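task queued by scheduler; priority normal; single chain, no ligands, no partner chains; default sampling; output format set to structure tokens
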Amino acid sequence: MLGVTGGIAAYKAATLARLLTGAGASVTTILTESATRFVGSATFAGLTGRPAHVSLWERPGEVLHVRLAHEHDMIVVAPCTANVMAKLALGSADDLLTSTVLEFDGPLLLAPAMHTGMWTSSTTQAHAATLLERGVTLIGPVAGPLAHGDAGVGRMSEPDDIAAAMTRIATARDLTDRTLVVTAGPTHEPIDPVRFIGNRSSGKMGVAIAEVARARGAAVTLILGPGSVDPPAGVHTVAVETAAELREAVLACSGTADAIVMAAAVADFRPVAAADAKLKKDRGVPELVLEPTPDILAELTARSPAGQVVVGFAAETHDVETAGREKLVRKGVDVLVANRVGREHSGFGSDTNEAAIITADSHDEPLRMWTKHELATAIVDRIAASLAGRGRS
């Protein structure tokens, strides 16, 4: 079932319908009334060879939304406007599309498309989080040109990418009976009872990876530093604060894990000794002596059992791919995600990452902009493919 809502990207849904039909899928389309202002139902009927519906009342003699919900294996809504996302998150059912989705009991994929301000608003982000918690898959939005000459995050993912995501969902329980350990967020290394050394990491990237892995059947343990995000539902979460606590938690559960994803931004240095009482400004500038924190990633790879997949992260400001390749070799990981960070870049605290995926077998993804969900999906794809070829640990 292809749902089309009232955004300018509705014309791309016709390409998606053609791609799906060409791949052998039977596609039925539901358009909202607003969608018909951009593209007509006859277009989709012609492309798919099947009826394209608009109104909840077009067939009074049957309960159309129930029949459509029960006849289909998957629903994709592309584009999905902020309005329809809100309706789906709240369980509203005031038209044929939302009524069908509410009745449907199967995989649901949404391809959001809207202006940047609408996507980044706290309301839309709350609706997106609600949908993700219920197991809905979101693809995009991505950065690029928008309506009226604007640009930013909010552009609908391309039809090819949406079709590929649907294929993954159709076989998505590829991590059933697998165990993953994911670290996320910063560490805070205390200077005194009120101050610490830390970084700008929010934990969003690691949480996104945990959500994607859980949706694909994995049993996930999330080791979460003091970031700004809540842990996802259905994921066992261990809260930590310092690098030492993170190391202890990782080592305690990593030995039997099929894969470990070290997405946390662990502090590189910590005070040799933290003051027992708050340091007072009127007593002069304190002398702060630092020491390196444990190299948790190197310790993990040194003791990693055969068949275990280890994914590392690198936050870089310059020569991102070169530095990432060097760290992949130095740390001995299977996959290294190299992020460009800094105040003028995405990454820490944002909903996007400018990142490259670097692998030991040189099947790399060059540096580009991703939403965190897209990057999380690509990382989990690499883990699933590696584990499929390695058997079980």
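post-processing summary
- The chain has a mean pLDDT of 89.
- The longest strand covers residues 309-316.
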